[in-house]
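Input/output pair, single chain:
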Amino acid sequence: MGSVSAARKVLVERITKETKVQVALSLDGGPLENLPNDVKFPSSFPDQDSEHHASQQSPSQQIWIWTGVGFLDHMLHALAKHAGWSLRIRTLGDLAIDDHHTAEDTFLGLGQAFSKALGDRKGLQRFGDAHAPLDEAVGRAVIDISSRPFFVGDFGFKDAKIGGLTTQMIHHGLQSFSQTAGVTLHVDVLKGDNDHHRAEAAFKALAVASKKATAKVAGKDGEVISTKGVL
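Output:
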């Protein structure tokens, strides 16, 4: 299920036997309606108007994320904040098993929303790159809104988990995002001693690179930014 408008604002719902995922995304920030209640979530989930570790409201952005995996929420919050998005995500996953399906399907849903919000992909900057530091760590991201899904990541994590998130799922999650978003994506961490810092630097770099790539180019409305004539 999905919907798209000229305002680059979308709603995506991804429902499987393993997870329920709702994603509302506005690439340009601004007001964003609460997620609909047509999908039932446990009463233990916080109210969408409540404040918690991954919620932030400002005149330019509305962010509210709850996946049941705190560090995943934290990374998606950082991604949305520094990309300039308004973003709401609600995920119910089979965490009694592990975090794999929860993280994977959240990233798949976010990628679907990203792709739908881009619309016909015409008139975009298309390419974006960025470096982002967090104390001793430096992340780097390069993105091409190419409609050619491909991902390469190198994070150099030392531990198996950061909080409740398996570090393998950062690589796999971004790979999943690239598939449904239809982007070529390279993300790596150039230096850093602390895994939390390494991950956050990577997501912040991705945020800034994505903001550049999705920007509209003045005078290029309706143009396909490709020698092939199609994306």
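The chain is about 30% helix and 30% strand. The CA atoms of residues 122 and 224 lie 5 Å apart.
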